[in-house]
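Form 7-S
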Amino acid sequence: MRDPRLVLATRNAHKVVELREILAVALETAGLELVGLDSFDGLEDVVESGVTFAENALLKARYAARATGLPALADDSGLAVDVLGGSPGVFSARWAGPLAQVAGLDRDEANNRLLLAQLADVPDEHRDAGFVCAAALVTADGAQVVREGHCRGVLARAPRGGNGFGYDPLLVRPDGRTLAEHSAEEKNAVSHRGQAFRTLAEDLVRLLP
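Output:
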C-alpha cells in the first residue's frame, strides 16, 4: 500500500492550512494527505539560492522529495513593488534582515515596517505592486512541474486586517480591502498562491493517480 502523504516543503503552519483548503478537491481525488516538513525528523531547511521564484520553489520541492522518498510540493512567493523595480521579490521573506531581532519584532511586522518606511514619500498613484507565486510539484520518480500565479493591487500606508500573513495587510485589492481583510475563502479565490496551486492541482491529479 502506497504512503498517502504529499509533502509541502515548509515549516509554516499557515501555509499548510491554506494549501489544504486550496487543494482539498485534488487531495481527495488523488487520495493524498498534505503534511509539512515538521512531520519528519532530521530534515534541513533549504537555502533559497535561486534568482527566480521558480528556481527556489524547485530547490525546495526537489530536496523534500529526495529526503522523504515522497512526492513534494513547494512554493516561493513574494511581493514585487513596481517603483522598487520588482523588489523585494525573492528576498521578500527576509527583506528586513536582522532588523526584526534588533527591534524585537516578528519577521512579518519588521518586513512590513521597513517597506512602508521605504515607500513613505511615494504618492498613491505610484504604489502599484503585486504578489507572485511559483508552485512546484516534484514526484518521487523525478517528474517536475512549475505553475505561476499573480495577485495585483496597490500598497496601503499602514497595515490593515487580521487575516493572512506576510505582506497581506498591505496589498489593497480593487474592492478597497487588503488581502488581510478578506476571509480565507475570499483570499484563496484571488490570491497568487491560490491561482498557482489550483493550476498545479490538475498536474497533481494527473501525475499522482
